[in-house]
Amino acid sequence: MTGSCPSLPHRCSKLRAYGVPSRVTPLYMTELKPLPFKLGSLKGISEKAMLIHHDKLYAGYVKKSDEIGEKLIALRKSDNYEGNATFSELRALKDAETFAINGVYLHEWYFDVLGGDGVADKAPQLSKAFIEKWGSIEDGIKWFSACAMAARGWSILAWDLKAGRLKHYNGDSHNQGGVWGSIPVITLDCFEHAYFIDYGSDKKKYIEDFWKNLDWVKAEELYLKVSQLSI
Ligand SMILES: [Fe+2]
Q1: 72 C-alpha to center of ligand 1: Å?
Q2: What are the tens digits of pLDDT across the range 162-215?
Q3: What domains sit in the chain, N to C, each tagged with a CATH number?
């Protein structure tokens, strides 16, 4: 029994590939999501670069997330594990777990806001937040872009649940630099793999094109949802 799942075709096909009926999805499994925009539709970022980014790198993090989940379950069930912080199989898996799962989530946040026309007027509330925070949209983009130039991995404008406001954070790795309790709104992949194919070492131009490709409508939708939350 495989059933059909039109809303999640990729997950279902992956489950079938694993030989797992779709109605009994293991809790550790991660969903492989399709790109939310048409391949080849971005300004400056080629179809080839995005295909590699999504189908190889992102898909690889999804696959490894599942593999790590399986190994953690098997290790627990073996009842033969050691929680050693210098080195242990459990430590290695727990470290890899946050790297892989953040690799999945961060790429989804990034892909989710691409495919737009870069027109900030389409996001009135987020634009207002930019102006309140940085004085103007242009000054906000200028600061964010400089922070992105300084990042080796991720540059993110997030809704910080503890602070109850937008804050910008950088991370040099998937599991470094993030602040727990913050939900990304605008996520920029600053790893070399995101731009070297199309821009060589010209990271500045890649970042300029990111803003041209930003879907402010989607960013606004996300901002309106998360800015309702505080703890
Ligand atoms: Fe990436």
Answers
A1: 25
A2: 999 999 999 999 999 999 999 999 999 999 999 999 999 999 999 999 999 999
A3: 11-112 (no CATH), 120-226 (3.55.40.20)
Cα–ligand 1 centroid distance for 194 (angstroms): 5
CA–centroid distance, 103 to ligand 1, in Å, is: 8
Handedness of CA 100, 104, 109, 111 (dihedral sign): positive
Look at strands 182-189 and 165-171 and give their pairing: unpaired
Residue 219 to residue 116: CA distance in whole angstroms:
10
Q: What pLDDT score was predicted for residue 25?
A: 60
How far does residue 205's CA lie from ligand 1's centre (Å)? 17
Distance 90 CA to ligand 1 centre (A): 26
pTM: 0.89
**Digit-coded pLDDT (tens) for 107-117:** 999 999 999 99
CB atoms within 10 A of CB 65: 24
- For the residues 9-23, what does the mean pLDDT come to? 45
- What's the 34 CA to ligand 1 centre distance in angstroms? 15
